[in-house]
Design brief:
- The structure is a single chain.
- This protein has 4 domains: about 160 residues, 3-Layer(aba) Sandwich (Rossmann fold), CATH 3.40.50; about 100 residues, no CATH class; about 70 residues, no CATH class; about 160 residues, PH-domain like.
- The longest helix has about 35 residues.
- The N terminus is likely disordered.
- The radius of gyration is 58 Å and the shape is rod-shaped.
- About 35% of the residues lie in helices and about 25% in strands.
- The strands form 6 sheets. Strands 14, 15, 16, 17, 18, 19, 20 and 21 form an 8-stranded mixed β-sheet that branches.
- The protein has about 525 residues and is α+β, with helices and mostly antiparallel strands.
- It has 12 helices and 21 strands.
- It comes from Symbiodinium natans.
């Protein structure tokens, strides 16, 4: 009989949704019926209070009847499980005798060993099954104390009620119905009730499995919807946090071995579900990460052959020997994936073209070097002329030519240059390490760049430390000369470095003849 507590108001406070389940077991002439066995099993498994009613007086026969009810324990296979702790309420109905409240305890404390071991075992069994015991009497209906005694009994039963709990889980209506169906099925099948199976139904099926499903759904709802590669995906892994939530939600469960085993099983189930989803997400992220973020085309030149060759042309360096290299051009694609890491380089492939390079590549810029020709005032190193410097009569007009890494000056610029004329002096920038600086608004100075001075100063007068001063008589013209000479100096330095030891074989220090200059030299820039 399932009833609410609305008619017990005033006896004890209760929750609005609280109900009492009362199992009424017929006694006496129906004691051996199958329903009696099943109800006794229900009572031992599900009851938090067992009310045993004796008729008239608390006799040895009544105690034996209680013992027969406890015989249903033989149907329970407990293994490592425990039954719910129950209270025995022993009631003498239609009582006409005077009993003290300790009457039941006095009956149970009687000793019968060794004369009557059966009666002693009966008392030990009752004490073991019911660690909490109470004793009440109810007189015949209509007697003066009837209402008060009944009220006291009802008040005790209601005030000492407690929710049914299995392994730390409060059993709800759905759990209870499932447990009763399980009990009936097992009694009919094997005349035994497997208590661990009942615990599994309530704790595992009724609590742990729904908990794992809820936590799994929550974790999946927090997973990102990947539409592109996420390099920080691992930071969003919810598995560890979800398993901690599971442990916290199960912390109230019993620590019994059987319950712990159920918790471990459910935790493994949850972990497996989460890892299945997470590995799928990782695989998707891996696919997105392998998508190409960028690609770059690279080219290279692979040497096929090399040969010695003259610079050629009609310039001052036409007889210089350089190395010409033939290269095959190849290309490849370099892939950069979204997930980063080392770039993926596809194989090199020939582009079907070749290119020729000069190993001493400084000479490739030779045709582009500026060529200048014009009249400059040169300061003479002559001692007498130096004495006249203050009078500005120490300067000599010279026809100056800048070509092929050489700075040359010829006779008086007022005279026409002839093919047989030889330069009065020459600075060969491949041999002579030089620097240039502006001396005044219209003048510049060329001087040795190395501490020991000029190497092989045979192509001009003066010693190895001599500086050469030239005056363009015009600011704009002076700037042109300075910039052009600086470019030839850079060329000479690089060409000398690349020629190395072969420099002395191919580049001579000399005073060139006018005829050695390029035939089209007259068309070069004049300043």
């Amino acid at each position: 009989m399932l009833r609410d507590l609305s008619d017990l108001s005033g006896l004890v406070g209760h929750e609005d949704d609280e109900s009492l389940l009362i199992l009424d077991c017929e006694g006496g002439n129906n004691a051996m019926a199958a329903i009696r066995t099943l109800v006794n099993v229900f009572g031992l498994l599900l009851g938090s209070q067992v009310v045993f009613v004796a008729n008239g007086m608390a006799t040895e026969q009544a105690l034996q009847t209680l013992g027969m009810s406890l015989a249903a324990r033989s149907l329970l296979r407990l293994e490592s499980c425990k039954l719910p702790e129950q209270e025995l309420v022993f009631v003498v109905n239609k009582n006409t005798l005077r009993y003290e409240g300790s009457a039941l305890e006095k009956i149970l404390e009687q000793k019968f060993q060794p004369d009557d071991p059966g009666r002693q075992e009966l008392r030990d069994t009752v004490r073991e099954c019911f660690p909490h015991r109470s004793f009440f009497t109810v007189p015949l209906m209509g007697m003066p104390a009837f209402d008060e005694s009944l009220r006291a009994l009802r008040s005790h039963l209601v005030s000492h009620r407690k929710p049914l709990e299995m392994g730390g889980i409060f059993v709800n209506g759905r759990h209870l119905a499932g447990v009763m169906e399980l009990v009936v099925a097992e009694v009919q099948k094997s005349q035994q009730v497997n208590v661990p199976s009942m615990n599994r139904y309530v704790i595992y099926e009724g609590f742990l499995v729904p908990l794992t499903q809820d936590l799994s759904d929550l974790a999946q709802s927090q997973l990102p919807e990947l539409s592109d590669y996420d390099p920080a995906l691992e930071e969003r892994n919810p598995i560890e946090a979800t398993l901690r939530r599971f442990d916290e939600a199960c912390s109230h469960l019993s620590t019994a071995t059987s319950v712990e085993a159920l918790k471990v099983e459910a935790r493994q189930l949850l972990s497996s579900k989460l890892w299945d989803v997470w590995r799928w997400l990782e695989a998707k992220n891996e696919v997105l990460g392998n998508e190409i973020r960028d690609s770059v085309q690279e080219t290279r030149e692979v040497e096929i052959s090399s040969a010695k060759s003259l610079v050629g042309g009609a310039g001052l360096l036409s007889e210089v020997v350089v190395t010409k290299q033939l290269f095959r051009e190849e290309g490849r694609t370099v892939l950069y994936r979204k997930k980063g890491g080392h770039p993926e380089c596809l194989p090199w492939k020939s582009l079907g073209t070749t290119v020729t390079r000069t190993k001493e590549f400084a000479f490739d810029s030779l045709p582009a070097l500026p060529k200048l020709r014009g009249s400059l005032l040169k300061t003479s190193p002559n001692t007498l002329r130096a004495m006249l410097r203050l009078l500005r009569v120490d300067q000599q007009p010279r026809l100056c030519v800048l070509q092929d890494g050489h700075f040359m000056w010829f006779e008086d610029a007022s005279k026409a240059a002839q093919a047989g004329d030889q330069a009065k002096g020459c600075i060969n920038f491949l041999v002579h390490r030089a620097q240039i600086r502006q001396h005044s608004d219209t003048a510049f100075v060329i001087f040795p760049a190395e501490p020991h001075g000029w190497r092989e100063p045979s192509s001009f007068t003066g010693d190895s430390q001599r500086s050469f001063s030239f005056d363009a008589c015009d600011v704009h013209t002076c700037t042109q000369w300075i910039e052009a000479v600086a470019e030839h100096i850079r060329f000479g330095n690089l060409a000398a470095e690349q020629l190395g030891a072969a420099l002395g074989w191919h580049v001579k220090v000399q005073k060139p003849m006018w005829s050695q200059l390029q035939p089209d030299g007259l068309n070069d820039s004049q300043v």
